[in-house]
Amino acid sequence: MNFERKYLSDLQGRLLETRRFIQVVAGPRQVGKTTMVQQLLQKLPFPSHYAAADAVVHTDAVWIEQQWETARIKQKQAESPEFILAIDEIQKISNWSEIVKRLWDEDTRLQHNMKVILLGSSRVLLQQGLTESLAGRFELSYIGHWSFTEMHEAFGWSAEQFVWFGGYPGGAELIQDEERWKRYISEALIETSISKDILMLTRVDKPALLRQLFELGCQYSGQILSFTKIVGQLQDAGNTTTLSNYLTLLGQAGLLSGLEKYAGSKISQRGSSPKFQVHNTALLSAQQGYSLAEARVRPDYWGRLVESAIGAYLLNCSLRDDFRVFYWRDGNYEVDFVLEKKGKVIGLEVKSGASRRNPGMAVFQKKFQPQRVLLIGDTALPWDTFLSISPNDLF
To answer: CA torsion sign, 82 to 63 to 189 to 26?
Structure first.
């Protein structure tokens, strides 16, 4: 497959400009970051050097210098006025940002036209290094999970297939054998992401608890559950602060987040119960005993899957387009998703089948005067249509 994600053209444009910033590409595992950069290197009119730190010992800081020197030698041999150095999984190396800063500044001082791309699957570790050492020297591109439009264009998937199988291109060829597909998602994606992007790189005192929280959060995706109730369902749960921290780590790995309650003030949001939301519905359905055909004939269950698919789409778009995603609830009144960007607010209610008017939206509209409210479902804007538009265009 030679499908090109739209992020590629943006990155290509930046690298054709005069050397100004380090280009940082961040995102979850198996969304095509490496493939995209390799496609890019083939398109650019100057030579390059690609290296991956995935199997390098994390204390081997000299490795970065070795790769940088290799790129300098290659550029000199090629007698090229420009050169690209791409380093993958950069966050695996301790103190990577300090080394990159020194080498980048050295090239700047000596007027070496070395352009640099850094890739990583741990957003939090990348951001820590960028803000600590590389302030003012980088541009960050977040590459999220594949959208319905991309999976449809690349593999011909229907909207129903996307809701169930999610947006992992690596498993697309396995969906005719659902059990095999579920094993792939569980072993190659879920376990690898947790073990390599969280446990290997961050101190986690109770790794079994983190895994239990992930499984529970997937099971309850699209539902609001207080940390106090979560403690009662998990073994050796410790306190709610620990669970909150673990949920943050899962979110930073692109797996599972807890949406905050919208209240118009950040003080109120922090104390809210989280609404669990998977970043990719494959993470939910891979752990279920149902097949797509069985899920499709269970209206309530299917409705929750549709809502999770829309929530996942909103989360991924929010990281790219810089808006925030919340939920809202007041007593029995509820709004599924609230989007906020630069003071503009949008309320979204998801209904996967024919349903009566939701009184929660009217209460929300009266209390917060949002820019707009939107019903997503068969009686209004079809949910599959919503998955094909850009949420950023709603603002």
So the answer is: negative
